[in-house]
Amino acid sequence: MYFGWADTALSPLMGIDYYEKVAAKSGPVTRDFYRLFMVPGMFHCRGGFGTDRFDPLTPLVNWVEGGAAPQRIEASQVEDGKNCAHAAAVPVSRGGALQRERQRG
Length: 105
Hints:
This protein has three helices and six strands; from the N terminus they run βααββαβββ. It has 105 residues and is an alpha+beta fold. The strands form two sheets. It has a four-stranded antiparallel β-sheet, with no helix packed on it.
């Protein structure tokens, strides 16, 4: 599941709360079937003042078909056809940390 940190339609804390409820009910095996990625600066599903371009499907397919659970999802922000920011959303279950690095270009 992914959620934008800047979502204006739903509070980003709703996504975290849902994840935590699933983890509380399912226990440590939660990471075997469910990850929550918080996308820096993204509004509701797309847009925002941060990264909103990313491919969540390929990591999911790799997990289901190849057993390789995603550790991060790379995202970027595009302005005027150019990448102006890059961020890696990491699963909330890895401490909720977001690793963000800016690249000007």
